[in-house]
Amino acid sequence: MAVALLIDAVTVEFGSFRAIDGLSLAIDFGEVRAVIGPNGAGKTTMLDVASGITRAKQGRVIFDDAIDITRSSESDIARAGVRRKFQKPSIFEGLDVRQHIAIGAQGGLRRTLSSYALAQRVDDVLAEVGLADLALRPASELAHGQKQWLEIGMVLASQPKVLMLDEPVAGLTDEETERTVALVRKLRRPDRAIVVVEHDMDFVEQIADRVTALHEGRTLFEGSMQDARADARVVEVYLGR
Amino acid sequence: MRRLFLILLFLSAAVGSSTAAELDRAELIDRLCGDAAALGEAGRSLMGVAAEGSTADRAWAAPIARAMMDRKLTCDGAGAVAITADGSRDALSGAPRTAAESGRSPLLSLKNRSVFEMADAALALRSSSDLGRRAAALRTLERQAVTLPELLFESAAAEESDPVLRAQISAVAEAAALNSVDPAKRIAALQRIAATPDRRALAKVGPLTKDPAYAADPAFKGAVDATVRKIERGIKIGDVLATLYNGLSFASILFMAAIGLAVIFGLMGVINLAQGELIMIGAYATWLVQEALQRFAPALTEYYLIIAAPVAFLVTATIGIALEAVLLRHLYRRPLMSLLATWAVSLFLINIVRVTFGTQNLNLVTPFYVTGGVPVIGDFIFTWNRMFAIAFAAVTLGLTWSLIRLTPLGLNIRAVTQNRTMAGCIGIPVRRVDMLAFGLGSGLAGLAGLALAPIYSVNPQMGQNFIIDSFMVVVLGGVGTIVGTVVAALGIGQVNVLIEPLWGAVAAKVIVLLMIIAFLQWRPEGLFAIKGRRK
Questions:
Q1: Among A20, B269, B325, B474, which has the highest number of CB atoms less than 10 A from its own CB?
Q2: For B112-139, what is each residue's pLDDT tens digit?
Q3: How far is the C-alpha of B350 from the C-alpha of B117, rounded, in Å?
Q4: B314 close contact with A: CB closer than 8 A
């Protein structure tokens, strides 16, 4: 099976603090990978490296078995097909819901889609994330959960090969979490890898094929969620008894 | 020759017979050669000719009146001989002949002299082909305008080809009617004056309250009072409109200077102190276009303001893009450094322009479409140069707004403004958008330079006058909002224009600044702040 995203011995330092320490991780196409771990374990930093926001001091990031994106800019990485949703809902306050999806589908200055294809894509994505009724509302008026879905929709609109979701259910109600579970399951495709960083273990259990637990910038555990719950070190540093 | 002249005479007599008063030329000549009373009579008929005589009669009478004044008319047994510009001619027939030895020149008494002076001037006003002579004649007539027939001025004004002189004739006629002895005429004149209520009209009507007739004649008093009230109301309306109009035009200048900065400061968070110099370079680009047109296409020179618009925009946009790519790109995370760097750029640009073009003010042609104006009411004149500034600002606002709101570039700019990281992560080339936005902001400064070129003096330092005003507008409006920039420019413009007549321009500036400082204490984010912009 092809490796969608390979993080190869990456080290990131902020001053003298080592946020990621020789971390290696391979995420395959078709899988949903959950990354868990205590605060400060390096989960978000790992996503930042993969999306080009933070530069790795050492190591490489390879996308789709061939493309080295370690030094590429954010927008180049995004256009290659690696997209992420941020921890805090990051939306553009001045734009409406439809414009968000449209700019997600076709950012930048070059037109790659005909206006018909674009409208079609936007409609599909709006239906998929369940925001079709709110299409013309300013994004700043949305509720927290809706903002989370909007951001997923934005990321989704470009039909990415690697989808990285940073805490997609943080602050959501149980019902909203249920909907997000259904959404993530629907997004799973053989030609797409999904990386989810999340603290909600029930959510992780429902969506993840495999779980990677990080601790102090290193991989602590990799396997299924059931095994993670059983693993003594994971329980020790993160899950608690 | 003589026959031709006679035919002409007959023809003109035939034409002349259609007018009301037929002139008996021979009788007039007799009177000119008669005693003092007859002379006075002759002077008055000459005046009558000037007022209502036929064209031919006026052309005949004018040199005779002139000759009388110059004592170049000689009476002899066969009639009279006048020495005119054409030589010595018989006064009646115009045939060349010299006066008999025994002839005498009639001497005008002091009283008659003034009658003839007026008649001469009136005839000159009606029939001279020389504009200077007609103007001089009007000045002479003005002294005794009250005693002259109204018809004279009416027909003179109707036939006058020069608009300035025509207006002067009407003004003299109006003043004459106002001081006429006939109360009905005065009241009619008052009503005519009330139709154009401005300060000049008030100056004309005001003194009438001291006129003896004002106390004596209640109808006249009523008419004067009504006219004064009407004029004062007109002046008040005119003043309000003029203040609004001036405020609006000042606001459009402020807006033009600030809109580029609003884009640059709002999007990039760069405090661009070279913005004023970009305005200056826009003005210089405009001047260069004018010079080029003068050399290569003189017919189009008048339209240089329109032709220069794309040039001014592109030149400054290019400079802005170069500035961003070479210098500011590396300083985004160090705002103080970028402030100092842009200051250095501003000094550099000032001096390079100084070295290239010199320090003197540039001479820009004022095209016909920004000269003059239309008087509306009171002293309010709808001037075209202010209108040009307002229209230019409105068009710029429309284009900028459409660009930001309706185009993909605008969508990208807004996305980058509000959330840089996210924008990058959905594939927007943040760097390129930065560069284009900087180019847009600089280009808008260039357009401001173009709009200011015909109004302000164009020299290397001109930009420095605008940088403070621009920041004032942008900060008050709220960083990065076009609406805020518009409202702040309108507010500052109007307040400035309202205060200026009371305490002067400098005090107005100080007061406006204090008001802005106070306002920002209360609302530091400005009038319209957008949430979530780059910190």
A1: B474
A2: 888 888 888 888 888 888 888 888 888 8
A3: 64
A4: no
What's the CA gap between A25 and A4, in Å, rounded? Answer: 11
Instruction: Search chain A and give the residue with CA nearest B481.
Output: A94
Please enumerate in sequence order all residues whose Cβ is within 8 A of that of B355, keeping only pairs 6 or more positions apart, or say none.
Answer: none
Q: Contact A109/B432, CB-based, under 8 Å?
A: yes
Q: Which residues of A touch B478 (CB under 8 A)?
A: none
Note the pLDDT tens digit of each residue in B252-261. 988 988 998 8
Angle at B129 between CA B127 and CA B134, to 5 degrees: 70
Domain boundaries, given as residue ranges, for chain B:
19-179, 238-522
Q: Which of B414, B425, B428 sits opposite A95 (nearest CB)?
A: B414
Per DSSP, the three-state class of B22 is coil
Q: Round to whole Å and give the CA distance between B426 and A181.
A: 23
A103 touches chain B (CB under 8 A): yes
Q: What is the dihedral of CA B382, B388, B392, B398, to 10 degrees?
A: 30
Residue B463 CA to residue B455 CA, distance in Å, equals: 14
* pTM to 2 decimal places: 0.71
pLDDT above 60: residue B534? no
Query: Is A114 part of the contact surface with chain B (CB cutoff 8 Å)?
Result: no
Q: Give yes or no for a contact between A162 and A83, defined as CB atoms under 8 angstroms apart.
A: yes
Enclosing domain of residue A15: 3-239
Q: Which two tokens stand for residue A63?
A: 């996308």
Q: Residue B67 has which token pair? A: 């000759």
A51, A54, A74: which to substitute to probe chain B, counting the most B Cβ within 10 Å? A74
Note the pLDDT tens digit of each residue in B159-183. Answer: 778 888 888 888 887 777 777 777 7
Q: Sheet containing B73-76: which strands, arranged edge to edge?
A: B73-76, B79-84, B87-90
Query: Per the CB < 8 Å rule, is A75 touching B428?
Result: yes
Query: Looking up tokens 């329980």, which residue turns up?
Result: A235
Q: From first to last of its 241 residues, what are the pLDDT tens digits of chain A? A: 578 888 888 999 888 888 888 888 899 998 999 998 888 888 889 988 988 888 888 888 988 888 888 888 888 888 888 888 888 777 887 788 888 888 888 776 677 777 888 888 888 889 888 888 888 888 888 888 888 889 889 888 888 889 999 888 888 888 989 999 998 888 888 889 999 998 888 888 888 889 999 888 888 888 888 888 888 888 888 877 5
* Cβ of residue B419 closer than 8 Å to a chain A Cβ: yes
Residue A191: φ, ψ to 5°: -100, 25
| Contact state of A83 with B408 under an 8 Å Cβ cutoff | no
Residue B217 phi/psi, 5-degree rounding, is -110, 110
Rounded Cα distance between B386 and B323, Å, is 33
Other C-beta atoms closer than 10 Å to the C-beta of B470 total 28
Judge: A92–B532 Cβ closer than 8 Å, yes or no.
yes
Q: With contacts defined as CB-CB under 8 Å, which chain A residues touch B415?
A: 92, 95, 103, 107
Kind plus residue range of the DSSP H or E element containing A26: strand A17-28
| CATH value at residue A110 | 3.40.50.300
Q: How many domains does one find in chain A?
A: 1
For residue A83, the tally of other CB atoms under 10 A from its CB is 26
Assess B406–A contact: CB distance below 8 Å, yes or no: no
- Look at B10-14, B86-90, B206-210 and tell me which has the smallest mean pLDDT: B10-14
Q: Cβ contacts (< 8 Å) between A44 and chain B: which residues?
A: none
Q: How many CA atoms lie within 13 A of B60 on its CB side?
A: 25
Is A74's CB within 8 Å of B424's CB?
yes
Average pLDDT, chain B: 83
* Cβ of residue A219 closer than 8 Å to a chain B Cβ: no
Q: Which residues in chain B have their CB less than 8 angstroms from residue A84's CB?
A: 425
One-character DSSP codes across A122-171: HHHHHHHHT-GGGTTSBGGGS-HHHHHHHHHHHHHTT--SEEEEESTTTT
